[in-house]
Amino acid sequence: MPYIPHTESDVAHMLSALKLDTIDQLFDEIPPDLWAEKLEIAEGISEMSATRLMTERAVTSDRQLNFLGAGAYEHFIPAAVWDVVTRGEFMTAYTPYQAEASQGTLQTIYEYQSMITQLTAMDISNASLYDGASALAEALLMAVRCQKKKSGQTILMPMQVHPFYRQVCETIVAAQGIQLQLLPYDEGGQIDQTYLAQLNIEGVVALVIPQPNFFGVLEEVHALTDWAHARGLLVIAQVNPMALAVLVPPGQWGQSGADIAVGEGQPMGVPLASGGPYFGFMTCRESLVRQMPGRIIGRTVDLDGKEGFTLTLQAREQHIRRSKATSNICTNQGLAVTAATVFMSLLGAQGLAEVAQQSHQNCEALIKKVSVIPGVKAHFNRARFHEVVLQLPVAAASVIHFMAKQNIQAGVDLQPFYPELTQHLLVCVTETKASADLSRYVDVLAEAIKLVVAV
Amino acid sequence: MLIFEQGQPGRRSMAEAPGGSSAPLDFPAHLMRRQLPRFPEVSELQVVRHYTNLSRKNFSIDTQFYPLGSCTMKYNPRGAHRAASLPGFLNRHPLMAETNSQGYLTCLFELQEILAEVTGMAGVSLTPMAGAQGEFAGIAMIRAYHQSRQDHGRTEILVPAAAHGTNPATAVMCGYTVREIPVKADGDVDLDALKLAVGPQTAGLMMTNPSTCGVFDRAIAEIAQTIHQAGGLLYYDGANLNAILGKVKPGAMGFDVLHLNLHKTFATPHGGGGPGAGPVAVASRLLPYLPTPIVMKSKDFYRWSTEHDFPHSIGRLSAFMGNAGVLLRAYYYARVLGRAGLLRVAEYATLNANYLMQRLVDLGFTLAYPTRRASHEFIISLSPQLKQYGVNAMDFAKRLLDYGFHAPTTYFPLLVPECWLIEPTETESLEQLELFVAALEGILKEAAEDATLLKTAPHTLPVRRLDDVKAARELDVKWSYGEEKTRST
Fold first, then answer.
1. Per the domain annotation, does B128 fall within a domain?
2. DSSP state, A199?
3. Has residue B326 been placed in a domain?
4. How many Cβ contacts (< 8 angstroms) between chains A and B?
5. Contact assignment for A93 to B61 by CB distance below 8 Å
6. Of all residues in chain A, what percent are helix, strand and coil, respectively (each to 5)?
7. Potential cystine with A379: which of A178, A389, B34, B236 (Cβ 3.0-4.6 Å)?
8. What pLDDT does B262 receive?
């Protein structure tokens, strides 16, 4: 029996201790009419067969040249990261409720919190949330709690925040009566500051600033932060952690820094893996910590005065406060955070900056190369980070389809999300792409456009 | 020692130096970072050794018996891990073209079907990333259902007193008020109190069955009828599905919507507190509201659902499509176990729990619900030991760590004083259960002879009992540079 160790004599011994004849008698408190008649599921297969089956299925997605980004970024992950992280002691432990028996996980998360606060230049980090999108949604809820004294609960949400993130926010905050007011982008792909200047901010409690935004474009974070703070709004930064190795961190935005900073942690050593498990990071100003959701690890001492680590400020959490908790979140994304901690330790700040720089330069190199194709150019002409909106002479969907047949994942068609961007492709380039990869992309793109035009 | 204390300026691991151009960045100066973050400056070996040694300070399923009640800490098959780590899965971008993703989508589609079948439900969405997010999705669907019927007076969610804390917290996140329903001395929900509580304000009831009291609520049919007659819906918290997997389908009990904890019932690793996965399953009347995306099959082609398929969906819950890696592991597990194997899960989990319960009764421990069968878990109360020896449930738990066992869930559910919730799972052997019994016998003896030994436990772990009050009062949640100097003096 897979994974069940009982022999026939074990079962006989155990049943006799219970003065029973069959295992089914253990279920005699369940009313008989509730018992399932049958289970329409195939019979089990061996580990060998299951491995073969999964291998055949995995192959259909193998060996793709990937230029997709849009919130999930392909960075090289050194072997040491997951070799250490998949040790059973990390992988098969649970939430560190018994602190003395969980010092490994607890200290790792404390180190993670330290690194994330360094990277963001914020005061406090929690132990992580599910992913970047749900972290942003939790940040909106947190901002509303922090601004309880203000009337209204509207949040300014730029259009160029990831469309899926906006959808997740809508799902999660809708029931609490929080409104998301969309902000348009200007011709450079940034938050339209002339629009902001004449905006009626009655009932508004916070502004979300993405850096870089969904188009890869950098926002004017200092001016935006100061604009919001001058009006009593909280600033929620939504940032790419890899970009923060080279871009001004949210804690240093404007005169006084962002109030809450969140983002997708995946670029820090977590594989693309079809979208998860990733982790969302969340940081804030110290004065807001009691409104922060999720686990927080603190350093303390034991009975002998020896340093140790434990869950702290648990009075915010559901297992203590129940209906009065800051969130219903229970687990974090412990294992992905462990990977990020090992990854950040291995690369160091200099290594992260080099990866960010190389990714950015590869992207600029690709833009230069594709611009020789008639009708292809970067759509927004402002500074950007490792991702670009390419304007094409044809619909993006048909190009994507053609290039996928050549095992190139060309980018994201923006039209479903931005109807005005009719022939636009969001393309990401990281440090993983060699010069030959860029050339191949350009060649196949040119071919694809030619074919589509001919049709 | 922290990783931050092990570095030297200028030292680094070159594991991922990408090389290439070092041309200066062309960002506007005011948007550029002026000073690098302060990270550890360490070698690859230092990193590997540090985190390997930290891992050894953890208890885990791979190293210890871990009878943590309601958490289902069963063996996590290595085969599932290897399958989910195949390059075609691990390197797959979430937005990769469907034409290049048929294998992956097939696994997910089949997992949806398997989960619908074991729960007796009409449809499944795999996207919630944890049990608590599944709960959120479920209650949001109940809300959407009532709203679609213009039934706006339903403002209250009922929750039994034994419920997990995420239940009331979720209801509030969905805009509901919470009313607790008492649990009777035999562990079943107080049906009379429930009947008095329901009314036109009732949106639904959240319930686990078997409950966190470790017993199967025998009146579930009447509970369901009571809620449905009042116009409410029933939410099933799948935390304890391991106890009845394949034996009883929640759909047959009258539940309208539920979540499964794949990291419990389907044996995916808990990862030191996540990732999990909390797919939701619904009866047909809630199908339109399922969170998206969902894998659809048209002829022989698998694709993601679009807005046209589910125009009334409660929406999206994750940046992409949920915790895919966890879903693939669960799929592997379900395929290896198959029909007979899935049924055995509940049978042997229940056998182990009842046997262990009997053995603890033999030792003189007090059951919270002595007249009842155990489900896959059971509760003992250490109140008599507290009275007799002055040793509480926490002291017992900490001493158990010294014996090399993870402690059961302590002080939950809240309604049993000095409680231990014990869940051995089906993957533990008879010998392992006996070793646990022997440890408790030893600790009982120690409690009688030298209670201090328990009150000051643990004695053999990397740290002794920690000062939680100091941790909360003098908040220290990150390393500060400059600290290394004060520490070395």
1. yes
2. -
3. yes
4. 673
5. yes
6. 45, 15, 40
7. A389
8. 98
CA distances from A149 to A153, A231, B460 (A): 10, 14, 50
Q: Looking at the complex, report in whole angstroms how far the Cα of residue A94 sits from the nearest Cα belonging to chain B.
A: 4
Residue A153 touches partner B, C-beta closer than 8 Å: no
Look up the CATH number of the domain holding residue B237.
3.40.640.10
Q: Name the nearest CA neighbour of B455 among B411, B393, B407, B403.
A: B393
Q: Quick one: A100 and A147 in the same domain?
A: yes
| CB burial of residue A397 (10 Å; 0-12, 13-18, 19+) | middle
Domain span at A365: 67-75+348-454
- Cβ–Cβ of B324/A274 closer than 8 Å? yes
Residues in CB range of B455: below 8 A, 6 or more apart: B390, B391, B395
* DSSP 8-state code for residue A212: S
**pLDDT tier for residue B486 given thresholds of 50, 70 and 90:** low
Residue A36 shares a structural domain with residue A165 = no
Q: Which two three-digit tokens encode residue B61?
A: 């399923």
CA distance B339 to B346: 12
Co-location of A407 and A377 in the same domain: yes
Strands (E), B225-285: 233-238, 257-260, 280-282
- Supply the pLDDT for residue B487: 55
Q: Establish if A3 belongs to a structural domain.
A: no
Average model confidence (pLDDT) across chain B:
95
Closest Cα of chain A to B293: distance in Å? 11
Concatenated DSSP letters of A114-125: HHHHHHHT-SEE
For B269: left if phi > 0, alpha if psi spans -120 to 50, otherwise beta; the answer is beta
Distance CA B209, CA B281 (A): 16
Q: Is the pTM of this model over 0.95?
A: yes
What is the Cα–Cα distance from B97 to A402, expressed in whole angstroms?
Answer: 11
**A248 DSSP assignment:** P
CATH of the domain at A98: 3.40.640.10
At what angle are helices A163-173 and A132-146 packed, to 10 degrees? 50
Upstream peptide bond of B458 is cis (omega within 30 degrees of 0): yes
- Decide if A321 is inside a domain: yes
Predicted local distance difference test score (pLDDT) of residue B275: 95
pLDDT value at residue B488: 46
- For residue A392, give the CATH number of its domain: 3.90.1150.10
The C-alpha of B188 sits at a distance from chain A's nearest C-alpha, in angstroms, of 12
Q: What's the number of domains chain B is made of?
A: 1
Establish if B294 belongs to a structural domain. Answer: yes
Q: Are strands A377-378 and A412-413 parallel, antiparallel or unpaired?
A: unpaired
Burial class (CB within 10 angstroms; exposed 0-12, middle 13-18, buried 19+) of B98: middle
